[in-house]
Write a structure and sequence with these properties.
The structure holds three protein chains of three kinds. Chain A is of the alpha+beta class. In chain A, 38% of the residues lie in helices and 19% in strands. In chain A, strand 3 and strand 4 (90-92) form a beta hairpin. The chains are: A alpha+beta, B alpha+beta, C alpha/beta.
Chain lengths: 127, 164, 1018
C-alpha cells in the first residue's frame, strides 16, 4: 500500500462502502463469522472451516466470507451473521458445523431462514 | 559453537542453542531487552534452567542475579522441564464462581499432581491461571492453545484424552 | 426388477456422516439381516437433505416419514415398530417448526437495546485484520483532524472538555494526565498503552484489541501529538495471543499505509510504536510497575512522586492510558467534546464497557452510558439470574473493588456512586453473584489473589495481605474467633494507608465491602459454624445437610435407599424430623437448591425420596417415653413447631401438655394445606406417634378462654407459645367486608372444618372466583376453589417469576385451568344485596427495584378494569392473632405483631417462663422452619431448667448405630431428576385425592444413584 493522504482516507471509505454494501452485482451474500477468543474457544474455527468447505463443494462464487470480532454476547457463541442482498442481516447463535451446513444449504442457497437457530435480525444501532 | 555452550548442550539440541544465540543477538544492546529474550528463549527451549540464564546474562551483559530475579518474578517463566501439554485451569473470579475449583480438584485427583507439577510420563503439566479473559465461557480449561469452555468435571477425561 | 415394499433413505451428506450416519446405516443393515427383511426393504444412501443439524436423517418411503437425530441404538426399535408393526416411532419424528416465530430485531433484544456503542461501535461489523474496513467506518479521521487542524493545546482542551476519565480503574481525567505530560520539558516522551488487563472477570480490553485494534492505535497517535511524543509501547499480556496477533497485523498495516511511522499522512508528524509482551504479573497493571517491567526488570512499583508525567519510562515524561480509554479518543476528536459529554452523569461522562459475567443469563460485553442503573445491567441487559436463583451482589472492580448488594440495584453506576457504595469502577469487570456464593469465601478468594500477586516490595502489602488471608481462611474453615472481624477491619485500614502502590492500597477493599454488607454471614461462620451459601465445605459434611434447617442426614438416607434398606432409612429420618412423611410432600426443600448435582444437571429429588421411604417402609414402632423429670411443660398450639417441641421434651423425660383451640391437631398442616397435597391420614399417623410418646394434646381448648393464663402459669413450669400466624392480612379496599370475601387462610380453615357442607353445596363460592396474591396460600385457595367447581382467576401485582409460591405449585394450578392475571391489583369490590358481584382492579407497571431485588409494582393511571365474580379470596399474607394473650403476663409483642424473643435463650421471650417459636415469631414461614423452631425451643427450655437446677447440660443418648454404605460411581453421566408421577390435571381437579403419586421402587433407587455423595471423605 502506498502512503496515504487524507484524501485517500475518504476514497477508501467510499470504495469500501460500495464493496460492503454488496451492490456490485457479483456478491449476493456476505457471511460474517465472529471470531474473538470466546468465539474461537466455543468452536468458531470449526464453523468457519465447515462453511468454506461447503462453499467450495457447492461451487458458488457470489458468497463472501469474512471474520469479525466479538459481538458482545459471549454466552451465545459461536455467532454467525448472514446478510443476503437487500435483506436484513440475520444473526445465528450457538452455531456448530452441522448447523452451519444447514444454514448454508437452506438459507444461503435456498433463501429459507433457519429460525430455530436465529438470535435476531438487523444490526446494532450506533448513535 | 563456543565452549560456554557445552553445558547447554547437555540439555538442549544444537539447533536449540543456535536459536538461543540468535535471540540474544537480536536483542543485544536494546534497552529493556531482557524480558523479550526470556520469552522467546522459553518458546524455543521450553524452560529456563540456570545454565540458560547464565548464557543470557553474559550475552546481554547483565548480572545473573538480575536475570534470575526476573525469571522468578514473572509467572510466565519456568525453570523446570514441563509436560508435553500444559493444562491451565482458570481460577479467575468468573470461572471460580462457575465451578472452576471443582474442575481443578478433579484434574488433581485424576492425575495425582498439584499445581506446577508434571505427570510422571511428562504428558501434562498442571497450572492454574488468573483469568484468561474468556469469562463468557466459564469454567475454562486451556490445554496448550486450545480453550475449552463450559467445562464440567465429568468432561475432563474426555477433553484430555484428545491429547497424546 | 426387484420390488421392495419399503425404501429407507439414509442421508450420507457430510453433516450426517459427521454425526454418525455410517454407524446408523450399519446397525440398520444388521438389524434387517437379523429380522430377515433384506429382501423386502432397501436401504439407500442419499445426498444431503439440508437438515444437517438434525442428522443423521432417514426418510422412510412409501410413507415419506422423516426420522431425525438417529443413533445406532435406535435401529432395533425403529425396525420393530416401523417396518414390522407399521407404527411410526414418534420420539424420532421430525417436527415441523411451529408457526413461524417472528424473528426479533436486534433492538427488540434487551441485551442489545439498552446498550450505547461508542468504544465497541465496530464490534461484529468490521474485519479487524483489514485496515480499509476500519477506515470505512471513519477510522483515522479523528487522527487526521488532530494532525492537520489542531494544536496540542487544542487536543488537550478537547479531551478535558469531553470529561473522559481513565477507564483502567482510578478514573483520573485523561485530559489532565495529557496536560501534565504536555507541560513537562523533555525531548523524548512516551505514550504507553496498558493492555495488561489483569482483573479477573474483565475482558473488554481483549475484546477491543481483537475486534478493533486500529482504534487503539489511532488514540495513541493523537495522544502522541498532544504531548509531543514520537515513540509508544503497548504493554499486552502474553495470555492474549489473538489480541497480540491482531495488533501486530494492525501495526504493520498502519505503518505500510503511512498511518504510523515517519511523516504520518504527509503531515510531518512521526510516531512509532512497539508491542511489549507482559510475562504474567498482576502488579504490572500498576503504572510505575508496568514501566519498570518494560525497562526489563522485575515489575515492581516505585513511589510517586515523581509522577510518570514528569519521570516515567526510562525517567522520561510518559503517559499511560488504558485500551478502552484510548479507543474513545479518535471519536472524541472527530465528533467533538460536547458530543461525548452529552451522555453520562454530571461527573462521569460518556459510556463504560462492562464485562458482565458470573451468575447471569447473558454473559458478555456491554457498553452503557455511565449512570445506568445496576439493576438495568443485571436484569434487563444481563437477562437476570439463571436457574431461578436470587441475586446476591455484583462484584465490581475485581480484587481492588467491592460488592454492591441487592438493596442497591437502583444505584446509578458511575464513579462517584460506586465509590460511595464501597466498590470501585475498576476496569469494568462486573461479576454477578447469586445466593449460592459465600461473602466470606469471596473475600478470601480475592485476598488470596492479592497475596499471591503482591510483589513483596513493601511490608504492609506483603505481610498484611498474608495475615488477612490467614484470618479469612480460618473463618471459612470454622476456626474463626470472636474479634476476627474487628481485627480484619483494623488491618485493612493500616494496609490501605501504608502500602506503596494501588495493589496494596486497594487489596483490603473486598474484605471491607463484604463486612459492610454481609457482616451477619461472617458472624454466622464464626459463631454458628454456618455457611448459608453452603460453600465453605470445611464446616460441613454435605451442602444439603448443612442447608436443611434441622440438619437432616440426607446423604445417609439416600445411600440407604440405594442399598434398599428402607427401614434403616426411615430411622435416619426420624432422628431429626418428627414429620418426615409431611416433609416428603410439602417441604420447600432448601436442601435441593444447594445440591451439587444441580451444578451438573439437576438436583437430587430429595423431597420425593424422603416421601418414598415413608410410603414404602414400615414406620418404626414408638414406645411411650418414661417421665423422669418433675417440671411440667405446656405447649400452646398443635402445629409443627409446638408438636416438635413437645416430642423432644417428652423424649427428654418431661410431661408435656399441648393446648389446641381447633378440633384437630396439626396447625397449618391440617388447616392450611389442602388434602390433595397432604392426605389427612398421613398427617394423623405422624401426630399419633407423638401422642404415643406420652404427649397429651387437648383439642378445642383456647387458652385465655377455656383455660386462663393464670391457671396455666400455676400448673406449668414453662410455657411454649407456638400459636402460628392464622389471620389473613386485609387488602384495605372498599367492599372488603362483603359476604363471600374471604381471607385465604380463613377460607381454607372453613373448608377443612366444614368439608361436607362445601362438597354438598350447602356452602358455596359461586361460579367465578378471584384469588388475590401470589404465595402458596393463594395457590392453595385457588386450587381448592377449582375443585369446588369454580372458575378461578388469580390476580397478582408483579410478574410470574416474582411469585413467592413454589414453582411446581404454580405450574400445577395452571394445568388445572386456573388463570393467572399478572400485574393487576384490586381497587374495590362491589356487591349487590351484600354479596360480591364484581372486583375492580388496576394494572401495575414495574418501577424501581425494591430491597428484595424485585421490581416494585406501580399503578398505571386509568387502567382500571372490572371482573364479574361471585367471591373474592384475599391471600396476600398472614399475621399472628395475639388476642388471646393476657396483658398481665407482660409478653412483648413487636410491630409485626410477633413475639420478641432472644432473652438469654434464642427462643425465650422477655418473660422467662414463656418461650415462643414458629410463625408466631417469624411471620409466615415454612414447615421445616417451624420444626427447627420446635427443636430450638425444646433445647432452650431444657437448658433453662437444668441451668436453674444447677444440673449438667443434656446429653443426647446414643442413637442406634446404622452403618451407611459408601458406593461412589466412577463416572457420572448427565441425567435429569426423576419426575414425580402425577394424576392427570383433568382428573385431579374434580377430587381431593392426592395429586402426586409417589416414586416406584425402581425409580427411587435410580434417583438415589444420582447422588454424588458429597459427604464422603476418602
Amino acid at each position: 500500500m502506498a502512503k496515504l493522504t487524507i484524501d485517500d482516507l475518504k476514497k477508501i471509505k467510499e470504495k469500501v462502502h460500495k464493496e460492503m454494501s454488496l451492490r456490485d452485482g457479483k456478491r449476493r451474500v456476505k457471511i460474517t463469522v465472529h471470531m474473538g477468543t470466546c468465539g474461537i474457544a466455543s468452536g468458531a474455527k470449526e464453523v468457519m472451516n465447515t462453511l468454506l468447505q461447503e462453499i467450495e463443494a457447492a461451487k458458488v462464487n457470489d458468497v463472501v466470507v469474512t471474520t469479525s470480532g466479538c459481538m458482545g454476547l459471549c454466552s451465545r457463541e459461536p455467532l454467525v451473521t448472514v446478510e443476503v442482498l437487500n435483506q436484513d442481516p440475520i444473526k445465528y447463535e450457538y452455531m456448530n458445523p452441522n448447523k452451519m451446513r444447514q444454514v448454508f444449504k437452506k438459507h444461503v442457497l435456498e433463501g429459507e431462514i433457519q429460525t430455530p437457530f436465529v438470535l435476531a435480525k438487523g444490526s446494532e444501532i450506533i448513535k | 559453537m563456543k565452549a560456554e555452550d557445552t553445558e547447554l548442550l547437555k540439555e538442549f539440541s544444537k539447533e536449540q542453542v543456535k536459536k538461543l544465540n540468535g535471540i540474544i543477538e537480536k536483542f543485544k544492546g536494546k534497552p529493556g531487552g531482557l524480558i523479550p529474550v526470556l520469552e522467546e528463549a522459553q518458546v524455543v527451549l521450553e524452560y529456563l534452567p540456570i545454565s540458560v540464564q547464565k548464557k543470557i546474562a553474559s550475552g546481554l551483559n547483565l548480572p545473573l542475579s538480575r536475570v534470575y530475579g526476573v525469571v522468578t518474578f514473572y509467572s510466565f517463566f519456568t525453570m523446570t522441564p514441563r509436560g508435553k501439554h500444559t493444562v491451565r485451569v482458570c481460577l479467575g473470579t468468573a470461572c471460580y464462581v462457575r465451578g472452576g475449583k471443582a474442575i481443578y480438584e478433579q484434574i488433581k485427583k485424576q492425575f495425582g499432581i498439584s499445581e506446577g507439577e508434571t505427570t510422571p510420563d511428562r504428558m501434562f503439566t498442571l497450572e492454574t491461571v488468573r483469568c484468561l479473559g474468556a469469562c463468557g465461557l466459564g469454567p475454562v480449561v486451556v490445554v496448550d492453545e486450545d480453550v475449552h469452555g463450559r467445562v464440567k468435571p465429568g468432561k475432563i477425561k474426555e477433553i484430555l484424552s484428545q491429547y497424546n | 426388477m426387484k420390488v421392495f415394499r419399503s425404501h429407507l433413505l439414509i442421508c450420507g451428506g457430510t453433516g450426517c456422516q459427521a454425526s454418525g450416519s455410517p454407524a446408523v446405516k450399519e446397525a440398520l443393515l444388521e438389524e434387517l439381516e437379523k429380522r430377515k427383511l433384506t429382501e423386502e426393504i432397501k436401504v439407500v444412501e442419499t445426498g444431503c437433505n439440508g437438515f444437517c443439524a438434525l442428522g443423521p436423517i432417514m426418510v422412510a418411503y412409501p410413507e415419506g416419514v422423516i426420522y431425525i437425530s438417529l443413533k445406532a441404538t435406535d435401529m432395533p426399535e425403529l425396525v420393530e415398530e416401523h417396518l414390522i408393526k407399521g407404527r411410526i416411532v414418534k420420539r424420532l419424528l421430525y417436527k415441523e417448526p411451529g408457526t413461524e416465530k417472528a424473528i426479533p430485531t436486534m433492538q427488540e433484544i434487551p441485551f442489545f437495546a439498552h446498550q450505547e456503542l461508542r468504544v465497541l461501535r465496530n464490534r461484529g461489523l468490521i474485519d479487524p485484520e483489514k485496515i480499509e474496513e476500519y477506515i470505512a467506518r471513519d477510522g483515522y479521521a479523528g487522527m487526521a483532524k488532530a494532525l492537520t487542524e489542531m494544536t496540542p493545546e487544542q487536543i488537550v482542551k478537547e479531551m478535558l472538555d469531553s470529561g473522559l476519565r481513565g477507564r483502567g480503574g482510578a478514573g483520573f481525567p485523561t485530559g489532565l494526565k495529557w496536560k501534565f505530560a504536555a507541560q513537562s520539558k523533555g525531548d523524548v516522551k512516551y505514550v504507553l498503552c496498558n493492555a495488561d488487563e489483569g482483573d479477573p472477570g474483565a475482558f473488554m480490553d481483549r475484546s477491543v484489541l481483537e475486534a478493533d485494534p486500529h482504534a487503539v492505535l489511532e488514540g495513541m497517535v493523537i495522544a502522541a501529538k498532544a504531548i509531543g511524543s514520537s515513540q509508544g509501547y503497548i504493554y499486552c499480556r502474553a495470555e492474549y495471543p489473538l489480541a497480540i496477533h491482531r495488533l501486530n497485523i494492525a501495526i504493520a498495516q498502519a505503518k505500510e499505509a503511512g498511518l504510523l511511522g515517519k511523516n504520518i499522512l504527509g503531515t510531518g508528524f512521526d510516531f512509532d510504536l512497539e508491542i511489549y509482551q507482559g510475562a504474567g504479573a498482576f502488579v504490572c497493571g500498576e503504572e510505575t510497575a508496568l514501566m519498570t517491567s518494560i525497562e526489563g526488570k522485575r515489575g515492581m512499583p516505585r513511589p510517586r512522586p515523581p509522577f510518570p508525567a514528569v519521570a516515567g519510562l526510562w525517567q522520561k515524561p510518559s503517559i499511560l492510558n488504558n485500551v478502552e480509554t484510548l479507543a474513545n479518543v479518535g471519536q472524541i476528536i472527530l465528533r467533538g467534546a460536547s458530543w461525548y459529554a452529552s451522555i453520562g452523569t454530571e461527573k462521569s461522562k460518556g459510556t463504560k464497557v462492562f464485562a458482565l459475567t458470573g451468575d447471569v443469563n447473558n454473559v458478555g460485553l456491554v457498553e452503557v452510558p455511565l449512570g445506568t442503573k445496576l439493576g438495568t445491567i443485571v436484569y434487563d441487559i444481563g437477562g437476570g439470574i439463571p436457574g431461578g436463583k436470587k441475586f446476591k451482589a455484583a462484584q465490581l472492580g475485581g480484587p481492588s473493588g467491592g460488592c454492591i448488594p441487592i438493596q442497591h440495584l437502583n444505584a446509578p453506576v458511575d464513579y462517584e456512586t460506586v465509590a460511595e457504595l464501597g466498590a470501585i469502577m475498576g476496569s469494568g469487570g462486573l461479576i454477578v453473584m447469586n445466593e449460592d456464593k459465600c461473602a466470606v469465601d469471596m473475600a478470601r478468594f480475592f485476598m488470596d489473589f492479592c497475596q499471591d500477586e503482591s510483589c513483596g516490595k513493601c511490608t504492609p502489602c506483603r505481610e498484611g495481605t498474608k495475615r488477612m488471608l490467614e484470618i479469612l481462611t480460618n473463618i471459612t474453615q470454622g476456626k474463626g474467633k470472636e474479634g476476627d472481624i474487628e481485627l480484619l477491619e483494623e488491618m485493612a485500614v493500616v494496609i490501605k494507608n501504608a502500602a506503596l502502590c494501588g495493589l496494596g492500597q486497594t487489596a483490603p477493599n473486598p474484605v471491607l465491602s463484604t463486612i459492610r454488607y454481609f457482616r451477619k454471614e461472617y458472624e454466622e461462620h464464626i459463631r454458628d459454624h454456618k455457611c448459608r451459601a453452603a460453600v465453605c465445605s470445611a464446616m460441613f459434611k454435605s451442602p444439603c445437610q448443612h442447608t436443611c434447617p434441622i440438619g437432616m442426614d440426607i446423604p445417609s438416607y439416600i445411600a440407604l435407599i440405594r442399598a434398599e434398606r428402607f427401614e434403616d432409612a426411615y430411622k435416619i429420618l426420624l432422628q431429626t424430623n418428627p414429620f418426615p412423611s409431611v416433609c416428603g410432600r410439602v417441604c420447600d426443600h432448601k436442601c435441593q437448591s444447594k445440591c451439587r448435582r444441580g451444578n451438573m444437571d439437576e438436583a437430587i429429588a430429595i423431597k420425593f425420596l424422603k416421601r418414598f421411604i415413608t410410603d414404602n417402609a414400615v414406620r418404626p414402632k414408638v414406645e411411650a417415653a418414661p417421665v423422669t423429670r418433675k417440671e411440667k411443660i405446656a405447649v400452646i398450639g398443635a402445629g409443627p413447631a409446638g408438636l416438635t417441641a413437645a416430642r423432644d421434651l417428652a423424649l427428654r423425660g418431661y410431661k408435656v401438655t399441648v393446648f389446641e383451640e381447633l378440633p384437630k391437631a396439626g396447625g397449618m398442616l391440617y388447616w392450611g394445606i389442602p388434602s390433595y397435597r397432604l392426605p389427612r391420614n398421613i398427617l394423623d399417623n405422624e401426630i399419633d406417634d407423638i401422642r404415643k410418646l406420652g404427649v397429651e394434646i387437648k383439642l378445642k381448648t383456647r387458652v385465655g378462654k377455656d383455660i386462663t393464663f393464670a391457671k396455666l402459669q400455676k400448673d406449668f413450669n414453662y410455657i411454649y407459645l407456638a400459636t402460628g400466624a392464622h389471620k389473613s392480612q386485609k387488602m384495605g379496599v372498599e367492599g372488603e367486608n362483603l359476604k363471600n370475601v374471604f381471607g385465604g387462610v380463613e377460607f381454607l380453615r372453613d373448608f377443612n372444618a366444614n368439608e361436607g357442607k362445601w362438597l354438598k353445596g350447602e356452602k358455596t363460592l359461586g361460579k367465578k372466583v378471584a384469588v388475590i396474591g401470589g404465595g402458596n396460600s393463594a395457590i392453595d385457595a385457588a386450587r381448592v376453589a377449582t375443585r369446588l367447581g369454580a372458575d378461578v382467576t388469580i390476580l397478582y401485582r408483579r410478574l410470574r417469576q416474582d411469585m413467592p409460591a413454589a414453582e411446581e405449585e404454580i405450574k400445577a394450578a395452571e394445568e388445572e385451568g386456573i388463570k393467572i392475571e399478572l400485574l393487576a391489583a384490586p381497587l374495590k369490590i362491589k356487591g349487590t344485596k351484600g354479596k360480591v358481584s364484581s372486583i375492580t382492579c388496576q394494572r401495575m407497571a414495574l418501577g424501581d427495584f425494591d430491597n428484595s431485588g424485585r421490581k416494585k409494582p406501580v399503578p398505571v393511571e386509568g387502567s382500571a378494569f372490572t371482573l364479574n365474580v361471585d367471591a373474592v379470596i384475599a391471600a396476600i399474607g398472614q399475621s399472628p392473632d395475639m388476642s388471646f394473650i393476657d396483658k398481665k403476663a407482660g409478653i412483648e409483642i413487636n410491630k409485626w405483631n410477633c413475639y420478641n424473643v432472644g432473652n438469654v435463650y434464642k427462643s425465650c421471650t422477655n418473660n422467662p417462663k414463656f418461650f415462643a417459636g414458629g410463625d408466631a415469631v417469624t411471620g409466615p414461614d415454612t414447615v421445616i422452619g417451624a420444626i427447627a423452631a420446635g427443636h430450638q425451643a425444646a433445647d432452650d427450655i431444657d437448658s433453662a431448667i437444668r441451668e436453674a437446677n444447677g444440673e449438667r447440660p443434656y446429653e443426647k443418648p446414643e442413637s442406634e448405630k446404622i452403618d451407611i454404605p459408601l458406593i461412589i460411581d466412577e463416572e457420572t453421566t448427565e441425567t435429569p431428576q426423576m419426575a414425580m408421577p402425577e394424576m392427570s390435571a383433568s382428573k385431579r381437579k374434580k377430587t381431593f385425592a392426592e395429586v402426586e403419586l409417589g416414586f416406584k421402587k425402581a425409580d427411587a433407587i435410580k434417583e438415589a444413584c444420582r447422588c454424588l455423595r458429597c459427604d464422603a471423605s476418602i
